Amino acid sequence: MPRSRKGKRGSGKPxxxxxxxxxxxxxxxxxxxxxxxxxxxxxxxxxxxxxxxxHCSSASETTSVLxxxxxxxxxxxxxxQEETEDKLKQCIDNLMDKSAKTRLAxxxxxRQAFSSKVLYxxxxxxxxxxxxxxxxxxxxxxxxxxxxxxxxxxxxxxxxEGGDEAEEGFKVLRPILTALLMDNSASIAARQxxxxxxxxxxxxxxxxxxxxxxxxxxLLESIFMTSYxxxxxxxxxxxxxxxxxxxxxxxxxxxxxxxCPASRLKVLLDLHLPKLQACLQSNDVNYRIAAGETIAxxxxxxxxxxxxxxxxxxxxxxxxxxxxxxxxxxxxxxxDRRKQxxxxxxxLHYIENEDFTEEKIRFGVESVYIDSWMRRRIYDxxxxxxxxxVRHHLQFNPLLRDIFGLGPPIILDATVKxxxxxxxxxxxxxxxxFKARTKQRNKVRDKxxxxx
Length: 452
Known about the structure:
The chain is mainly α. The chain has helices at 17-27, 31-34, 45-53, 77-94, 100-116, 120-124, 127-140, 143-159, 164-182, 188-205, 210-224, 242-257, 262-279, 285-305, 314-325, 334-353, 373-386, 390-396, 398-403, 423-448; strands at residues 56-57, 62-63, 359-363, 366-370.
């Protein structure tokens, strides 16, 4: 999915959020919002203002910035932001502490801050320092510290909006993440975190470079392909913790597959679809689900490049999916059975009828529609890294807004009293934007075919 990410977002020094809001307000037309019809869940003035101005977070506490009605006393955002930055600076300093406990606490605080707020200006000035500290944790820290450092690095690349700074950092840390992922003696948690970080960082930082994409795909393949059946068709006996690692690698790989050109996709489809079908018999429910979702994604991509695309042994695949979609095996946990049945019903409906259950994600006064397996994989990948902060980043992070076709961030002032663009207008906008990106992606795939 092509994206223009190289442009820099401003070059000024970090200032107050109020100044940033006023500057952006001059650039963004609110005519569509002010003239819109109030939706079913219209937000109050305080809620809208809080969503926009809650921009300060720290390791141990969150400072909310809002105005309490018209004429109310305004909190000094500049002071609050400076206090927040001071706390973040202390967390960065603590990454170099001799105590492993202190370093781990600092990583957790940074993870919370990076996932819940957009800190582009602050981090652009300190990215080298943060990267050096994360490199030290990945090389010398214990398993828990390594896992946390890999996650924070993925968040750093998202915060840097996938620009040149993120790409530069990825090139430095990629060999370390790779070595840790391939190290069988490393902790499973650290290796899983490295797999997710490699997939996400490659996706946002270096996706345009065919060589980096191919290397990352091959690396992740080398991890989850060990779960494939042997020549006799039997699945290997998994080692403790390996299904979780295989799932993380497979999901990271499938994220990068969405960037592949048509020529490369055809090779991947022929190689992996039959093997992944066998993995549906895995004893681990999460790996079965990951395999099923990846099958649906690959079939969707296959149909995207060839309308006549058909799955080999589609009858056998559908029978397997039907069995999983109606699984009542009592030796499986009840929640596992419910989750499995739900997912595989969706996969089966798509394989048989190309039906996809659309999901609507609301944030602020906007919504994004998850209306394909590709969009679901991309959204789930960001949600796994950002957790509950994914909605905040959809609202304010230019990278995510670019990826999902949302346009520049919408800045609302306190005079907007819950007015929204209509539900139908939002749906039309999302659908049109996604169709346009699909057409452009196909053109770029054709251009990349010679490179790959």
